[in-house]
Amino acid sequence: MPAPQPGSTDPSIIRNFCIIAHIDHGKSTLADRMLQQTGVVDDRSMRAQYLDRMDIERERGITIKSQAVRLPYRAADGTDYVLNLIDTPGHVDFTYEVSRSLAACEGAVLVVDAAQGIEAQTLANLYLALENDLAIVPVLNKIDLPAAQPDKYAAELAHIIGCDADDVLRISAKTGQGVPELLETLVREIPPPVGRPDAPARALIFDSVYDTYRGVVTYVRVVDGRIGTREKVQMMSTGAVHELLEVGVISPEPVPAKGIGVGEVGYLITGVKDVRQSRVGDTITTQQHGATEALGGYRDPKPMVFSGLYPIDGSDYPELRDALDKLKLNDAALVYEPETSLALGFGFRCGFLGLLHLEIVRERLEREFNLDLISTAPNVVYRVIKDDGAEQVVTNPSEFPSAKIARIYEPIVRATVILPSEFVGTVMELCQQRRGSLLGMDYLSEDRVELRYTLPLAEIVFDFFDQLKSRTRGYASLDYEPSGEQEADLVKVDILLHGDPVDAFSAIVHKDKAMAYGTLMTAKLKELIPRQQFEVPIQAAIGSRVITRETIRAIRKDVLAKCYGGDITRKRKLLEKQKEGKKRMKMVGRVEVPQEAFIAALSISDGGAGKK
Amino acid sequence: MSARPLSIYVHVPFCASRCGYCDFNTYTATELGDAVSRDTFHRVLIEEVRMAATDLRAQGRAREVQTVFFGGGTPTLIGPSALGEVLQSIRDELGLAPGAEVTTEANPDSIDQAGLDALLAAGFTRISLGMQSSASHVLRILDRTHTPGRSVAMARAARRAGFAHVSLDLIYGTPGESDADLRGSLDAVLDSGVDHVSAYALIVEDGTPLARRIARGELSMPDDDIAASRYELIDDALVAAGLDWYEVSNWAKPAGQCRHNIAYWRSDDWWGIGPGAHSHLGGVRWWNAKHPRTYADALSAGQSPRSGIEHLTEAERRTERVMLAMRMRSGLPVAELGDGHDRDGTVIDRLRGRGLVDASALDDGRLVLTRPGRLLADAVIREILDAASPDQQG
Lengths: 612, 394
Hints:
The complex is a heterodimer of chains A (612) and B (394). Chain A is 25% helix and 33% strand. Chain A is an alpha+beta fold and 612 residues long. An eight-stranded antiparallel sheet of chain A has the order 11-10-16-7-8-15-12-13. In chain A, strands 2-3-1-4-5-6 form a six-stranded mixed sheet, with helices on both faces. The longest helix of chain A is centred in the C-terminal third of the chain and has 15 residues, at 514-528. With 394 residues, chain B is an alpha/beta fold.
């Protein structure tokens, strides 16, 4: 019997599933094994992390953009199936994308490292899958590791999911052990997709990727009807109509087809050049006899964290602009607009989904476009209500109104921390310091605890993750999701150098923390800024009220003691070098500040991102 | 024939022991082993003197020598008669100008009364003694082996023996030195009646044992502010005793200035004899092989020991001129800066306004540092040079 063809596959033999796993718990390796064991990739062309496209994904071991691969599979009983493995992005910043990938599936393989147990982000995605009514296939991976404790973590998983510990499969994606059993379990446990073949076409966009040669490649799951080539399709959120140039499936390279039908997963190419025209979560229908009601759940991507990006070499500004324009083609969530900073020159105010998103964008700009960048401390979005009732949305501390503020709202998140029980005290203390309120606490197993908190996003953005890791020796994992906003007593702290505000260091902080921020920054700058020929006060101020002050004393001695015959050449070269160094100085008023001082001072509040 | 005065520097690369702060080109007997003989090293130096004289004659630039300076290392380690032989070779080959200044550095441990007499007899006119401090705990940090008081006693002995000019070197800002220690050192210096004092802030040179001790946290360098106050303390004491500054780190009684050093600072011509020695002749600078063995091997093969050379560009000469002249009491004539320099006068006005250059000297057309200006000499020099940067010269 020939393998079922795209466009004419009986939904009853389709299994759409994703893999939910923590970073390093083996998702990509498992996907590799599935590609091999179903025979879509032969051993010769196999490479590690086959589905991860970008270098940055492979190096950091995270999947930024999801992908879908169609795996023809003949089960042990001889029945032919079509498995669609929908890869999900693996980070807290991309929760919405994850939710859309999950919405395209009927089941999820929950992969947990048998030596480490479940992590917060996996748990959050598991809850997301359960909300989407997905069938869960629990799997412990890496059972070949000496440190594996499969019994302990099987019990933990059983407790969380509410299944029997014996139902938890034990595999090694590395060696392939248990993977055939997993494939059998998949076709047995995950229900086939159900849709109306004769109804108007509706397909869910769960990913959208820009390709230099082909334009935007849109990944869809057909829910109802059928999408075929030579049709015009319509984006239901915007009403925009596009010519369909190609339809196909990925197996694991693109294979064009005449169309795809109910339950099938594939790709569409319409010739659009910007992923914003083909947005994740949107519903695609046909222009003729189109559907009138979109599938639920579409949301515009909303930047949560803002940061200024500046080229270290000011002449790189046009390159930075071009690079952002290019990245934007493939990143519907990235927003930016030009910004000028007294201290840092010309740059862009950029909005991101979160800290990892920021870090990835920054890293891609530096790596793929060869730019050296400074980023300002990330901040969240505030809603300020003025005395006259007018509302102002603040994405940059410099826009923060100086007076006549009635109320300020800040975004909050629902955070989950999973950690060994011995660290509960210190983590609760951290959350308390960060203005968190405890929502609940559960023991996942004897020595592992899940803590749930509401926290201001601003507190998470300010090195929370680093603190969490250092307080738990790296054993805690964190996940959070937006949870609305709260009124808060916030102030803007400005840092003044010789009376001139240094815009890059202004921050919006809670009133109780203004002093701490001011003290930290003024002390840091005192260390970093070389002494000048005049005394330089460094002040932290709220409006016109100075809250802390440090002083850089005027330099009194700048002379080399000796300069004899043999020293002259060396001394001249030193002078020439110092002159070169001066070109890298930025002037704040009359104060010369080395660029390195800005970078170093900004880096103290940076680095809150990182993979989880 | 070049009109510029000619000086000779002779480098003797030997020390009895190594001081922890020193990065000079000098070696102990243990470090050198059998590779180089101290007893015959003066013959190698004489070889280079002959080669230099031949070279100068060939260029038509041979002329009487105005000043000779033996430095090191510890020149007196090779003995007064060896030093005398080298000096004699200079006299034979090039001739010494009438009233020529002939200096040797000396370490109090390496010379005695008879040695002083021998130097005088050989034609030395000036002796410069490394005293550094009169506080024994400071000398210990510097690894100096002499006991406090020896330098001062030697300075007195040198004056008694008939040296017209005697100089003492001080180092200030050593870890552990107090203001009182420094005052004690200054009292001792002044009590000895020398006509010249050099005072250097201790510089931590990369790669020295002192730098390692500081990096390990065993010692900590005093704040620059303390060094600045110590400089003022030194200047006050010396000026009160009739020694005036003539360069940022050098003070002298009238006619006590070291003419040899002034020659460096005026960019005169000088030939450096010895390993690692630098020479400067009409805008060309070169330096010898650093290691005594390499140096000696080249000469014994009849070759020049030169290991590097630079032809100074107009811009480099100008930079050096500003850099050196500004360190001196005689300062820099404003006119020398040229037409394109600091056209609107803002830099010079700013320096005057901040009290870094002397207002009355400026009225006479000279840039001369005030005392606060001396302490910030490098910053002032950078500002003057910046104002003359090519893109502003048009």
